[in-house]
Description:
The protein is of the alpha+beta class. The protein has one domain (about 40-155): Nuclear Transport Factor 2, Chain: A. About 45% of the residues lie in helices and about 35% in strands. It is built from three helices and seven strands; from the N terminus they run H-H-E-E-H-E-E-E-E-E. Strands 1, 2, 3, 4, 5, 6 and 7 form a seven-stranded mixed beta sheet that branches. Strand 1 (about 60-70) and strand 2 (about 75) form a beta hairpin. The termini are far apart. InterPro entries: NTF2-like_dom_sf (IPR032710), SnoaL-like (IPR037401). This is Integration host factor subunit alpha. Keywords: Signal. It comes from Acrasis kona.
Amino acid sequence: MGSKLLILTFFVLSCISVCSCRLSTHLSNDLAANKTKAIEVVEAYARHLNNHDCVSWVNLFAEDGIKYDEPEPSVGHKGLKAFCEGIYEELPSFFYTLTETPLVTSSKGLRVLSKWLIGAADKNGKPLGQTGIGSYIINNDFKIQECTGYDDIPLPQ
């Protein structure tokens, strides 16, 4: 009876080990795919801004999404659309570039961090430029729940 119990125990533990490995691989594959989708959202964010497509840009956000920026946060699709349209009123040649591959953390949902460069000319043609880091919280529907930009010092003119 002892050897049968030992063999049965070994078999059960082997099955648990194999199942755990398969589950772990499946979960990590899902996480990798989710990270890729989250990066695609941030890349679309830049693309829509550069195409002056405020409707598509706003649709990347959750209905109650928020963008923290000057002079005050923009909340919800209506506020986000007004923010986006305001950029092009003040800076018609505005562009937004991701300067490195974004990083994704997954400790609490998905947070994408990206370095960016923005540039434009004001209405008088004076060139403007700035670098910084963007932080995007992506929800389960792969919508931007929250976006915050952290500016570096302005680039010398």
